[in-house]
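User: What would this chain look like folded?
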Amino acid sequence: MLLWEIDRPLHELSEIYGFERAARAYRASHDAVAGLQSLVWRLGIACDMRDKNSLLLAADENSAVLFEEHRWRARASLPGDFLEHAVLLDRFGFARAGAIVSPGAADADPMKLAHGLLRTSLARGARLFEADAVSFEAAGRSVNVGLSNDREIEAQSVVLATGYVMPDIVCSDVHQVSSSWAIATVPQPQNIWNDGTLIWEDSKDYLYARTTQAGRIIIGGEDSTEIVEPDARDRLIPEKSRVLAQRLTALWPLAKTDIEFRWAGTFDTTHDGLPLIGPVPGAAGVYAAYGYGGNGITFSFLAARLIGDLIAGKSSPLLHDFAIDRDGDVAAR
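Assistant: Here's the prediction, encoded as structure tokens.
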């Protein structure tokens, strides 16, 4: 799911940082999805990418908060329409109090996308080394990266894109490790909702759902910040799968709940829903590109642009907004 909408609603983010800063982050995320799509088309990467609308559903019987969120988005010149219950039911078949439907999203096969980008990079002269980075020394004019195979890489600039595994040189008060579970049904293209619109809920621990080109329904959620150890997380796959199948039935009664694939994963979130992008404090020449939350791929494209420009001598107010050492107490509000 390549969403431009951030895990923190715009009205909440505005309460934390002010409207201009919050709107800037949202607009940057919106542009990043379009930029990633353009890159994929330009490079000819076959990753099943499709233009999609996104549908943010009310999680309870009151849609007032969603309506207010839509007002804030309109103020920020962001696209989207608020749908009342009757219109939502008629247009999409979801029996919820309301929703915001927005253009500008997309979906893709993430494995094909990652491999396609790696192949392109290698064809353009990049070198790929299969080893873990275990140490970093950034005291001199260059950065030395020690590898687990006893080799060392020396570079003027190093970008850390290591997912939720943070090296010791990165310190941030705004991130938190979480686990998530997901299931994929058997192909059922005849039972897909309108255009396979990307679905997510307006709640802290939201449910999300999307479709594949084969007509499978993928639904996930049930996130936990307490169960993050891999064995404990994976032991819950059967139980979480049953719950997700029940939630799929409640969301879309037409769906078959025959599960063909089920899995779990660990990822990072931030208290404010924003990524960690920019220089690593105290480590000259080292930069961090951590997307995190529900916008990881979208934010990764944004990180590539911001860090590339920064190394080239340019700057952006977004680097302040996404700073690794931003105030965690403020972000947690």
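The mean pLDDT is 94. If you want, I can go into more detail on any region.
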